[in-house]
C-alpha cells in the first residue's frame, strides 16, 4: 500500500502545483475522491478549507488532509489510467510546451505517466540520466531501430554539466523532438510509446491474437490475449472494448504443450484449479514465447516477486543509491585530506614566519656584532663561535623543514593521483556492473531454455523407459510360449519314436505271419486239383494276394482293397441310416 501511495503522490503533485493556491485544495480533492472511488466528506472538506489563516491551502497544509481523508481510504479498486488522465488534465495545459511536437497529446500523456513511474522519490520530481537512457533504449527497441550510444553519451555529458536530470515536461519535449528517433514516422513512434506504456504502466507482459477452444460448444474462436502479472484477459479485438473473459493465474497454475489435433497446430494448455484452457498459437515461435511468458509469470507468483520491469527499476535505484553513498564517502575522505592539507600548510606557514623572524633577529645581531667587532673582538670571540654554531643548527632545521615540506607536497600529489585512479576505477566498476547485468539476463534466458529442453528430454526418456518395459514383458511372454512349444515338440518326438518302435514290432510280426502263410500255401497247393470240382461247395481259406497288404490301427490287414471299399460303403450306409 505504501508503494501505491507513492505512485499516486507523484501525479497529485503535478496537479496540485499547476493549480492556483486559492482553489487547488477543493478542486483537486473533489476530483480525487471521484476517480479513486473514495466517499466524499463535505463536512471535513469545508472544515479543512475554511477561509482563515489556519486552513491548509498550501503545499505543507494540504498534505495532512490528503493523507488522512483520501489516500488512507484508497482500496486499489480504481482505474489508474483514468486517475492519471485527471491529473494530466489539470496540469498539462499550464506546463506543456507550445512548440510543435512529433507526438500527439495522447502520446505526451503516456510519456508523462512513464516519467512518474521512473522518476526519483524526491520533490521536485526529476528523471535521472540513467532512467532517461533506459526509457530511450526501450522506445528505440520497440521501434526496431539501432541504439545510438555515442549520441546519448554526448547528450548525457551536456546534461550533467547543467543539472541532475529532466522534469516531466522536458522529457516530453525530448521524446517529441525526435532527437533519438530520426527517420521514424509519427505512427511508429506512437506505437513504440504505447508498447512501453503497456509494459511499464499497465503491467502488460505479452499480448497478441490466438485461437481459443470453447468450453461448451468446443469451437475455436480468435481472441486478443493480454498477459498481466496475475491474469490473462481475452477480448474480441485489440481495441480492448469487448472483453470475453479472464484466466486467473496463481502459483498452482501450469502450462504445457499439446500435440496437434483436430486440424489445429501449435497447441498448448493452461491448467488452473477450476478449469483448463486450450490455446492455438499462429506458429511454433509464438507458441514457445507464450508458454515461456506464462510459466515465468506463474514462477514469479510462486516466489512472490514483483513484475520484471518493477524489480529492474528497484535494482537500478538501489545501485544508484549505493554508488551515491560510495561517492559521498569518497568526497568525505577527500574533504578530510583537504582539511589536513590546509592544517599542514598553516603549520608550514607558521614555521616559515618563525624562520623569517629568527633570520631578522640574526641579521640585527650580526649588524650589532660588526659595529662592536673591533672593540669586543677579543672579548666576544667565544660568543661568535657559539653564535655560528646556533646559526648552523637553525639552517639545518630550515633544510629539514623544507625537506619535510617537499615530502608532504609529494604525498599530496600522490593522493590526487590516487583520487583520479579511484574515479577511473569507479567508472570501470559501473561499466562492469552493466556488463554483468547483461550477462546475467542472457544466462537467465539460457537457463530457462535449458530447463525447458531438459523437461522435454526427461519426458522422452520416461516414454522410452515405458516402451522398453512393455517390450521386455512381450519378450518374456514369447520366451515362455517358445519353451512350452519346445516341450510339446519334445513330447511329440517321444511319442513319434514310440510309434516308430511299435511300427517296427508290427512289421516283424507281419513278416512272421507272412512266412507262416507261405508255408501253409505250399502245403495246400496239392489239394487245389482235388477240390476244384467242389468249388461251389467249399472255399478254401487261402492267404491273401502277394500285393502289399493294408495296415490299419490294429496292424497288417488280411483283406484286399476291394474288400476294404465294400466295407467302407457298408459303413457309410449304416452311418447315413443312423443319422
UniProtKB/TrEMBL annotation:
Cell division among keywords: no
Alphabetic keyword roster: Cell membrane, Cell projection, Coiled coil, Cytoplasm, DNA-binding, Membrane, Nucleus, Phosphoprotein
Subcellular location: Cell membrane; Cell projection, Lamellipodium; Cytoplasm; Nucleus
Origin species: Piaya cayana
Protein name, per record: Switch-associated protein 70
Gene designation per UniProt: Swap70
Gene Ontology terms for molecular function: DNA binding
Record text on subunit structure and interactions: The SWAP complex consists of NPM1, NCL, PARP1 and SWAP70.
Residues of the PH domain: 203-299
Coiled coil: 309-530
Amino acid at each position: 500500500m505504501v508503494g501505491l501511495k507513492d505512485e499516486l503522490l507523484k501525479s497529485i503533485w503535478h496537479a496540485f502545483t499547476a493549480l492556483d493556491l486559492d482553489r487547488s485544495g477543493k478542486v483537486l480533492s473533489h476530483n480525487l475522491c471521484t476517480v479513486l472511488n473514495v466517499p466524499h466528506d463535505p463536512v471535513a472538506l469545508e472544515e479543512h478549507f475554511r477561509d482563515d489563516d489556519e486552513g491548509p491551502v498550501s503545499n505543507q497544509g494540504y498534505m495532512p488532509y490528503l493523507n488522512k481523508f483520501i489516500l488512507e481510504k484508497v482500496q486499489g479498486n480504481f482505474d489508474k489510467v483514468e486517475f492519471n488522465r485527471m491529473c494530466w488534465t489539470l496540469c498539462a495545459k499550464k506546463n506543456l510546451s507550445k512548440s510543435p511536437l512529433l507526438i500527439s497529446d495522447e502520446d505526451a500523456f503516456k510519456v508523462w505517466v512513464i516519467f512518474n513511474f521512473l522518476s526519483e522519490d524526491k520533490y521536485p520530481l526529476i528523471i535521472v540520466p540513467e532512467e532517461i537512457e533506459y526509457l530511450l533504449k526501450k522506445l528505440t527497441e520497440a521501434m526496431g531501430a539501432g541504439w545510438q550510444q555515442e549520441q546519448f553519451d554526448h547528450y548525457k555529458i551536456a546534461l550533467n554539466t547543467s543539472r541532475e536530470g529532466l522534469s516531466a515536461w522536458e522529457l516530453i519535449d525530448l521524446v517529441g523532438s525526435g532527437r533519438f528517433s530520426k527517420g521514424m514516422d509519427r505512427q511508429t513512434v506512437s506505437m513504440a510509446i504505447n508498447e512501453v506504456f503497456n509494459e511499464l504502466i499497465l503491467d502488460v507482459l505479452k499480448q497478441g491474437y490466438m485461437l481459443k477452444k470453447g468450453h461448451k460448444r468446443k469451437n475455436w474462436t480468435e481472441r486478443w490475449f493480454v498477459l498481466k502479472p496475475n491474469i490473462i484477459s481475452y477480448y474480441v479485438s485489440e481495441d480492448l472494448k469487448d472483453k470475453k473473459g479472464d484466466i486467473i493465474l496463481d502459483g498452482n497454475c501450469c502450462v504445457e504443450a499439446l500435440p496437434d489435433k483436430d486440424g489445429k497446430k501449435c497447441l498448448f494448455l493452461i491448467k488452473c484449479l477450476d478449469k483448463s484452457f486450450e490455446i492455438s498459437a499462429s506458429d511454433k515461435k509464438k507458441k514457445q514465447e507464450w508458454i515461456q511468458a506464462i510459466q515465468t509469470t506463474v514462477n514469479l507468483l510462486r516466489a512472490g516477486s514483483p513484475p520484471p520491469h518493477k524489480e529492474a527499476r528497484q535494482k537500478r535505484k538501489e545501485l544508484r543509491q549505493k554508488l551515491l553513498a560510495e561517492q559521498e564517502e569518497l568526497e568525505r575522505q577527500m574533504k578530510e585530506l583537504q582539511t589536513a592539507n590546509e592544517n599542514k600548510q598553516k603549520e608550514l606557514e607558521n614555521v616559515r614566519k618563525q624562520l623569517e623572524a629568527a633570520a631578522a633577529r640574526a641579521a640585527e645581531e650580526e649588524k650589532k656584532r660588526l659595529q662592536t667587532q673591533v672593540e669586543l673582538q677579543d672579548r666576544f670571540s667565544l660568543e661568535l663561535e657559539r653564535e655560528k654554531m646556533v646559526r648552523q643548527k637553525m639552517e639545518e632545521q630550515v633544510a629539514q623543514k623544507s625537506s619535510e615540506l617537499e615530502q608532504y607536497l609529494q604525498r599530496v600529489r600522490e593522493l590526487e593521483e590516487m583520487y583520479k585512479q579511484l574515479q577511473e576505477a569507479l567508472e570501470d566498476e559501473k561499466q562492469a556492473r552493466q556488463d554483468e547485468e547483461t550477462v546475467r539476463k542472457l544466462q537467465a534466458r539460457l537457463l530457462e531454455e535449458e530447463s525447458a529442453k531438459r523437461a522435454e528430454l526427461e519426458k522422452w526418456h520416461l516414454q522410452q523407459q515405458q516402451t522398453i518395459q512393455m517390450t521386455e514383458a512381450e519378450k518374456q511372454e514369447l520366451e515362455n510360449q517358445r519353451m512350452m512349444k519346445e516341450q510339446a515338440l519334445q513330447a511329440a518326438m517321444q511319442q513319434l519314436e514310440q510309434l516308430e518302435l511299435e511300427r517296427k514290432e508290427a512289421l516283424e510280426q507281419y513278416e512272421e505271419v507272412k512266412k507262416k502263410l507261405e508255408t501253409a500255401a505250399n502245403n495246400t497247393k496239392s489239394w487245389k486239383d482235388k477240390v476244384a470240382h467242389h468249388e461251389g461247395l467249399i472255399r478254401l481259406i487261402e492267404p491273401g494276394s502277394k500285393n502289399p497288404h493294408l495296415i490299419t490301427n490294429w496292424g497288417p490287414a488280411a483283406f484286399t482293397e476291394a474288400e476294404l471299399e465294400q466295407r467302407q460303403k457298408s459303413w457309410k450306409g449304416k452311418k447315413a441310416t443312423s443319422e
